[in-house]
Amino acid sequence: MSRLLLALLALAVLTPLPGRTLHAQSATDGRLFDQGRTMTERSPRADATLDQMKALLGQWDVAVTTHPTDSTTHEAQGHAEITYMNRGYAYQERRRVPGYDEAGRETDVMAFLVFTPAVQEWALGEVSTYTEHVELYNGDPRTDDRLVLSTSVRRRGGTRLIHYRVTYTITSAEAFTVVMDRSVDDEPWVVLEERRYTRRAPSADFMAVREDWGAPAPGLPEAARQFDFLIGTWGAAHRINLGGNWIQYPSTTTASYVLGGRGILEYSWFNTDPNLPDAATSILRIYNRVERRWESLYLTNRGNALLDFGGVWEGDRMVLHLFDTNLTDPVTRFVFHAIEPDRYQWFAETSRDRGESFTTTWTIDITRQ
Prior knowledge:
Helix content is 3%, strand content 52%. The chain is mainly β. The strands form two sheets. The protein has a ten-stranded antiparallel β-sheet with strand order 6-5-4-3-2-1-10-9-8-7, with no helix packed on it. A ten-stranded antiparallel beta barrel has the order 11-12-13-14-15-16-17-18-19-20.
């Protein structure tokens, strides 16, 4: 991991149909602890550029059109709720679309939308139960009524570069659209999905969640239950090495089942840094059955950076790495170990010799409350 990314991680912790009443998103999703969910304005310490997308806040009916082939389309109806998150430093969308594809499969989605002042960019991180994958997009500040974000990847080991683009268009105070399209090796763009959002009258039970931690979805493979030990409320004691000085501080951490019981959302906060009295982080985790690995989406409100990382169980430890690590940069890994029913430990360590040796940079001792 580069020094910039390590610094961001360190600073993060120091620092269905119109008119129809929709109840719980599912019988599985647990309580959401983020204080930002009830806020009607961004944090006064958040960058004012965040207000560019304030029109997204609210409860929505969502009409979805997908394009399975060049000549066919599929229509589905869903719903979404968009709130502030991370104590008012970003936006969070929860979306559910039954009958998302022609086979009738549904999708549950959680997305984080944030503005990063250090690079003057918007970032979107999205996790879907349909793909069981974390996708990241970046884009410049909004122009007119549109925000355009993009990413480029090579899929399934292929050599062709695939560009994906997500475009938000705010059409009025009561509606907006999101279009995802794709271009392969700079060929013409092809629309993959269109979502049309129509505002609903606010309802207290819209996409409501349970009062407890929720429950895992039935039928999950054993590997998709490996992070169940996180569920609950925890007190965390941190030790982090900043410039050769070990700093200690406490935080509170919670974890609930989300995404229809297929994902786990961790939320942590503390109030001990006078420079950021409302510090918070969110980590959304899902098991990717195709890749046979865990994937994580990380958001901090210190620097407002999104990261994606993941890994697998190794012996008696869960070992995670940043997905963009290469051998020219320091290698950083995150390790869960000493896992007991009411306690577990975590550490981060960095290698500058391509993994031959590691130096611990951060430890957390977590105890159930």
